[in-house]
Amino acid sequence: MTDKRALLDKIDFYLVTDSGLSRKGTLSDVEKAVAAGCRIIQYREKSISTKDMIVEASQIKTLCGRESIFLVNDRVDVALAVDADGVHIGQDDMPIDAARDLLGPDKIIGLTVHTVEEALEAEKMGADYVGLSPIFNTSTKKDAGSGIGPESIRAVKDAIKIPIIAIGGINKQNSESVILGGADSLVAISAVVCSDDVEQETREFVALIRKVKKDAFGK
Ligand code: TZP
Ligand code: MG
């Protein structure tokens, strides 16, 4: 197991980039989030050329350094080109086994799931974690569907051993319900990248998640 894969068990706040929503830009957001203790970054970029993505992905890889996991959303080819730590893929993207064949055994593969059945299938196919989506309604992803509610996380947690990252409509007010519901980590895109101070917001999310885990589970 690489060092980066071992880090998966220790993540609290997970940043997904969004250049359309960001106030200060993707590179600035990544830099601030890493400085604030975010240990996993997903580069999600759908609006620039592959050539430009590869340039930006290499810069993000440098910012993540050895401390933070660096994943590329959807694009196995871009992840390979820059030797990222792995990919995050959706139900309609490249199947996990095909991605694993291309990336090899050491890279991290995360899959978006919406149900217990999809989570079980993801684990069976060799996913390293699942992104459970959407927990609440969100306007950040137009086709995300309706929120499943934080109370739906428990059934997924009971069904699989790999970590669950919760995503969709999460903010500081509802984060506690998400972690108590069974999520290992959570993503908040608009709550962080639309803020004036990404570093401070990230710090607050990291501290809040750690406190909820410590108070509830003693870890
Ligand atoms: N996938 C599922 S919901 C979502 C993505 C990328 C958007 C989450 O954004 P926000 O602003 O945290 O609701
Ligand atoms: Mg996708």
From TrEMBL:
Enzyme Commission code: 2.5.1.3
GO cellular component, as recorded: cytoplasm
Cofactor(s) for this UniProt protein: Mg(2+)
A Pfam family hit: TMP-TENI
GO MF terms held by the record: magnesium ion binding; thiamine-phosphate diphosphorylase activity
HAMAP family per record: TMP_synthase
NCBIfam families: thiE (TIGR00693)
Similarity comment: Belongs to the thiamine-phosphate synthase family.
Name the UniProt record assigns to this protein: Thiamine-phosphate synthase
